[in-house]
Amino acid sequence: QVQFVESGGGLVQPGGSLRLSCAAPRVIVNVYGVAWYRLVPGKQRELVASIDGSGRTTYVDSVKGRFTIAMNNGKTAVYLQMNSLKPGDAAIYYCNRGGTKGPYASWGQGTQVTVSS
Q1: Taking a C-beta distance cutoff of 8 angstroms, is the pair 88, 95 a contact?
Q2: Phi/psi class of residue 80: alpha, beta or left (left: φ > 0; alpha: ψ in -120 to 50)?
Q3: For residues 1 and 20, what is the distance between their CA atoms, to the nearest angstrom?
Q4: Any residues with CB less than 8 A from the CB of 43 and at least 6 apart, and which?
Q5: What mean pLDDT do residues 98-117 have?
Q6: How far apart are CA 94 and CA 2, in angstroms?
Q7: CA distance linking residue 107 with residue 99, whole number of Å
Q8: Which of 12, 27, 51, 96 is the most exposed place for a label (fewest CB within 10 A)?
């Protein structure tokens, strides 16, 4: 079973920043890429940003210019730098396989991001 471990969430005021971390299997990062998804209760899970093994990135329009996805040199961790956070960014954030195959059915526990004054 593929395991992803998310961390770095917390409570931040509007306009603030957080950096999320995802520990991921190197082979997954390299072959399929990894994406960050977010889930708000009552809504569908949304793909926020993705990075492939070559470092190419994609973003949902609502976070472009504010969020940055990156991976470490060893391709064992993927980060999501979130700046200028808005209340609408509040969600549980998960990482999972990216690319055309999409996420695995199994999800980690995620990390909670709360944006509130």
Answers
A1: no
A2: beta
A3: 22
A4: none
A5: 95
A6: 14
A7: 16
A8: 27
